[in-house]
Amino acid sequence: MSLRDHAIVISLILIGIIVASIKCVFRNEHASPPGNLFQVPRRYPIKHFAKWKDLYGPFFHFRIFGRRFFMLSDLSVAQDLLEKRTSTYSSRPELPMAKLIGRDKTALFLPAGSRLKETRKLMIAFLNARSEEFYIPVLEGETYRFLHRLLREPEDFFRNINSLPSAIILKLVYGYQIDYEDDYFVQLAEKLGRLTTEATDPGRWLVDSFPRLQLLPSWLPGMGFKNWASEARSKCEAFIRAPHEFVKSSVAKGQYLPSFTSLNLAKLPLKGNDYEDILIHTSASLYSGGTDTVVSTMKLFFLMMAIHPDIQERAQKDLDLLIGDERAPCISDQSSLPFIDCIIKELLRFNPVVPIVIHSPEKDDIYNGYLIPKGSWVMANIWCMSHEASVYPEPHEFKPERFDMNSEGSIQQSDPLEFIFGFGRRNCPGRHFAERSLFMLIASVLWAFKISPEKNCNDQPRVPEVAFSTGHTVHPLPFHCSFQVRSTKSVAVIEELVKSFE
Ligand code: HEM
């Protein structure tokens, strides 16, 4: 047989496998909706899954190419499995494409096991409340720098929003100060984020459904994913390694800012051989986990403030009373500004940045009489939980006041932060740090600026549209708004603060 004949035979075998798998989707299984890959739209799949909840209830299952997916759309079901049985459900499903591009050692994609334990231990020690002394000065300093940039280039606020979490994390994790105009590491990191999102895009890569495709030679038709993955892998490696090497050479020269990497590198001689590799990938995980999520919430904050002047004014009254215009807010003001915390809760409820989280059981399990086999995709639909009308009346309205304290001193509606950051042993290690970062940003921006919709040529406000991207993390689409300084004194305060942080 010629090379071409071989290719045709192998292609036919592949088509055969795919057709057989599609057939199995339509096989009538107990308790499974007639769902298949082609009914789930690539854009806004969450809303589609929400409709399935109405049809099939809060716990349903479907199969795609022989893989089993279990959807948990109700908080109590998610807690039953992912929290009460966390020792079974703390793994992740296999994602061959993430492995091919070298992201399989990233915390988010690690299966349960000793490497995950070590990685999470490092992250939690760095991000929990006891480490605040280390990171608060950086959070405050970079936020004041952000205010300064907003003063000077308000029209560029989207670019500056993208840079703030990167500036904070790169400084904390690698002791690296970014160049806001054009930074090599930030560009590498953005590439890393884009490639990871593409590589883990559900339904995009056949190899994720048929892992054995990896074993076939690259020259066969349909194997283009292999070349794509190998190019992507070298770009991902560049970001993962380069900042780590930067810390090592700065430490060797004795010119460095203490950071997560430098502090842990110092422990290297006491640890085993794998430790440096774990450290490299943990640092990259902190970057990937801590930038995109915070950027999305910051964008939503600006969008909601432009649309809701009443909410903005209420928060500003509190800020004026507590702080005035002779000093800027700082982290220690958080406990005295409860309405800012209500805004944070409502931002994260209104648009849960990670709308669906995916866990996987390490062994077969039975729930409500149904078998959940080892390795299945168990997906908690956080978006459905945060839009449950019986818990959050008028769920599509932005209303921070739903989290005001009642007369007994507890918040009026359930706290969404209890599930927005995920579940059990895989919950977000950055939760505390994220809440601190968002408080610092929101309090500082509202203290300094009034945010309004842009005006059109007839001087009429052009209220921005509330629309979101789709993907593993969900972002507001680009919009415009305008900023007015609230007090000339606060401008002087910002100028002074930025000088003192130079
Ligand atoms: C608005 C802010 C954030 C939100 C809404 C958020 C949400 C989440 C969610 C839902 C998960 C998956 C949990 C699960 O599977 O049960 C997660 C995982 C993770 N997050 Fe966050 N996150 C945020 C900020 C951060 C920050 C600031 C960092 C680090 C600096 C971070 C680092 C991580 C990491 C490393 C994981 C993977 C943990 C694992 O798989 O074991 N996140 N986050």
Automatic annotation (TrEMBL):
**SUPFAM superfamilies, from UniProt?**
Cytochrome P450
Q: Which PANTHER family match?
A: P450, PUTATIVE (EUROFUNG)-RELATED, P450, PUTATIVE (EUROFUNG)-RELATED-RELATED
According to UniProt, the name of this protein is Cytochrome P450
Q: Which UniProt keywords apply?
A: Heme, Iron, Membrane, Metal-binding, Monooxygenase, Oxidoreductase, Transmembrane, Transmembrane helix
Its Gene Ontology molecular function terms?
A: heme binding; iron ion binding; monooxygenase activity; oxidoreductase activity, acting on paired donors, with incorporation or reduction of molecular oxygen
Q: Which residues cross the membrane?
A: 6-26
rRNA-binding recorded as keyword: no
**What pathway is this protein a component of?**
Secondary metabolite biosynthesis
Record-stated family: Belongs to the cytochrome P450 family.
Q: Provide the residue positions that the database annotates as binding heme.
A: 428
Cofactor or coenzyme needed: heme
List, alphabetically, the InterPro entries matched: Cyt_P450 (IPR001128), Cyt_P450_CS (IPR017972), Cyt_P450_E_grp-I (IPR002401), Cyt_P450_sf (IPR036396), Cytochrome_P450_fung (IPR050364)
> What CDD domains does its record include?
CYP64-like (cd11065)
Per the record's keyword annotation, is Transmembrane included, yes or no?
yes
**Gene3D superfamilies according to UniProt:** Cytochrome P450 (1.10.630.10)
Q: Domain of life, per the record?
A: Eukaryota
